[in-house]
Amino acid sequence: MISNYKYFLVIAEELSISNASRKLFVSHQGLSKYIKSLEEEFGTALFERKPKFALTPAGKILMESLREVELIEKNFYEELENIK
């Protein structure tokens, strides 16, 4: 699955690998490889490259799913804090 889903979410929000790389403090090349590996893993394009960088329908579905994962993770950590 996705090793660092937050990378995908930032790229999807920024719709720019360059802006996302600055925001995440990772290289442009590293994020490009990350996207390529995801697209190979899922067998479909997640971003359109031309005429402008945009999410494909599959990318939109992945973004929505990862937002749910992000919310579940946040709730999990909040519940752990409440237990402590």
Please provide a brief summary of the model:
By secondary structure, the chain is mainly α. The chain has four helices and two strands; from the N terminus they run H-H-H-E-E-H. The model has no long low-confidence stretch (mean pLDDT 93).
What does this structure look like?
This protein has helices at 5-14, 17-24, 28-42, 57-83, and strands at residues 47-48, 54-55. The chain is mostly helical. Strands 1-2 form a two-stranded antiparallel sheet. The mean pLDDT is 93.
Strand content: under 5%
Count of helix runs: 4
- In terms of quaternary structure, what is this? single chain
The termini sit apart by 30 Å
Could you list the spans in which at least 5 consecutive residues all have pLDDT below 50? none
Q: What is the approximate shape?
A: globular
- The helix-and-strand class reads mainly alpha
Largest sheet geometry: 2 strands, antiparallel
**Could you report the average pLDDT, rounded to the nearest whole number?**
93
**Strand element count:** 2
Please state how the strands of the largest beta sheet are arranged side by side.
1-2
Helical proportion?
over 70%
Give the SSE order as H and E letters: HHHEEH
- The gyration radius over C-alpha positions equals 14 Å
List descriptors.
2 strands, two-stranded antiparallel sheet, mainly alpha, 84 residues, 5% strand
Task: List the topology elements.
Elements: H1 5-14, H2 17-24, H3 28-42, E1 47-48, E2 54-55, H4 57-83
Antiparallel strand pairs: 1-2
